[in-house]
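USER: Fancy drafting a protein?

ASSISTANT:
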Amino acid sequence: MTEISVDVAIVGAGPAGSTLAALLAHRGYSVALIDRDTFPRDKLCGEFLSYDAMPIIDALGLRDELDAHVAPEISHCRIVGRHRNYEFDFPHPARGVSRMLLDDALFRRAVAAGAQAITGTASEVTRDSVTFDGGAVRARVVAGAWGRWGRFDQQLGRAFVRDRSHRNFGFKRHYRKAGGTSDGTIELYSFKRGYLGVNDVEGGITNICGLVHAGRLQGLKGRWDAFIETIRAEERPLDDLYARHTPAQEGFLSSEPVIFRSRSAVEEGIFMIGDASGVIDPLTGNGMAMALQSALVAAPFIAATLENGDRQHSEDAYRTRHAQLFGQRIGWSRRVAFLLSRPALLDNALRLHVPSAGPFFLRKTRADREVIARMVDAELEKQSVP
């Protein structure tokens, strides 16, 4: 059994874990980045990279890679109701990028910065160690980046895993659409107790990703094709949507339960980042941005723990800063989800046609891009690796 010692061990090499690994490795710390998968690999996701994530993408030197793969710019949102639509522009372009591309690019960036990649399934996580098949990592700090639901959440006794009334499931599939060219728009569609997000990614692919309350899936036994037929029969806009698209993937990807409840940013001394620290509704298009931003927020507090040893102060400060940056977003996302998962109510709301609603929604569900840019500049000043 192999055992290594590092400054920081990170469990999960998705957008949050790989970004944190790159930032800390650039500061000169030894980092182990542990994931059960090899890259590239696909993941359930809306695959919409919000504009408030772009300062971090630029700092990591990845914009050119997105451009090289022709990840489309998305500058417009359309909410599609039964009888009317509502549209608004973004103040800055977002990007449509698959998890196959983004996760692989971030993972490679972390390794290039000096993080040690370990492929293995973690079986036990504590504040100073990670045990996985084939070995163990001893660390001065451990970070959890295992996503919205993991066995460790149960092992740690996190309160949200006991919630049975707010469980949702995500599903996605890649398609090719008639016409094939990107129009720079993300669309949101409503159905009973759920919704869909639709946007283009690289390679001429359209991602259709949805969220549905667990109560609607009883008896389906994972047959997502049957569920799609059900909602197509219920909602004409969805029937029209799927009629314009041809599957480009063998089947659907689906998620473990998604529970929208508050989570502690530090649990039993483990710094949580990404979805492990809090899940925002996919309808906002801010999940991947929050993952990157949570790594940016956590990095200086983890560094402070390593440098001065005052762990309790760093943990408390991280909890406070995490709540300040993400708490309001998660709360507002739930309010909008309530509306979007009730088609008749949504259609009545769209009848009002309030022009300021879109910009208000953006302000409430994402970070100020300039604030993130200043945080990036502060982080870059601390880095020791070119």
Remarks:
- The chain has one domain: 2-164+258-382.
- The first strand starts at residue 2 and ends at 11.
